[in-house]
Amino acid sequence: MNLPEKVTLIEVGPRDGFQFEKKIIPTELKLRIINGLLDAGIRSIQVTSFVNPAVVPQMCDAEELIKLLPENKDAAFSCLVLNERGLHRAQKAGMKNVEISVSASDTHSRKNTGMPHETAFKSAQNMIETAKSYKMHIRAGIQCAFGCAYEGSIPADRVIAIAGKFADSGADMIAVSDTTGMADPLSVRMLIEKLRAVTNLPVVLHLHDTRGLGLANVLAGLESGITHFDTALAGMGGCPFVPGAAGNVSTEDTAHMMESMHIKTGVDIRKVAACSLELEAFFEKKFPGKIHHLYSCNKEV
After folding, report:
1. Per-residue pLDDT tens for 151-205?
2. Known active-site residue 144
3. pTM, rounded to two decimals
4. DSSP 8-state symbol, 9
5. Of 115, 217, 221, 248, whose CA is between 20 and 30 Å from 4?
6. CATH superfamily of this structure's domain 8-296
7. For the residues of 105-160, what is the DSSP string, one character each?
8. Domain boundaries, the chain
């Protein structure tokens, strides 16, 4: 089995995980969690999104949070932007790393953004051009890359075409997202193989554990040469189309699996688990990750 020696885990909990929670998280708690993740060795964190606070109240403190982030030359803080207004807010707040994404599903795009895919992609291209003028590092995301709750299976060639156009537009990195948790190890391998044929850009896998295949899909990604994975502490997050579904693949679970396979992550799992347990205490509920629960029982992992 040909596996990488080390990988980068990109922590998306403070954005993709927090946004699903109705109970508003105080800015100081968000900051404490981010600092805890940094202390745990995580060096790439998606901290917020610049979106309409009336639609996503959890992100209403984006500018305030950015101002309070610690100065850390080794850390890359990033954010999600959905339109030119959000991009301008991010630039004004001093963000250097942004994610701009579109859906591979036309139906999902219409329901999520009010725009058909072609219109949404043109908007994304314009945003990439603007972000380049701001000297930002641009991660281009493809939602519903492995399937859509409305359309079912998404043709891999459609995803590949989008990735190619993103690369031609000047993106620095491509992220393929299993938005609905419909991926399986075979589809992961097949898509990555096709992606490698059209772009040399770094590829990030954003996987969900909606159907219990999260870590199996991570392994398929590793076997295919992927070295960048989005994860969320405690497995926070979810799927808006599958009520009650598990969220993103857990940071602790993913790091544990990789370290047990002698793949270096640089992550102190116990310290990430401490952050997860603090959030569980705040929300008064359990999140779906596995490994952090073992630490709560003071068991050796």
Report:
1. 999 999 999 999 999 999 999 999 999 999 999 999 999 999 999 999 999 999 9
2. no
3. 0.96
4. E
5. 248
6. Aldolase class I (3.20.20.70)
7. -HHHHHHHHSS-HHHHHHHHHHHHHHHHHTT-EEEEEEETTT-BTTTBS--HHHHH
8. 8-296
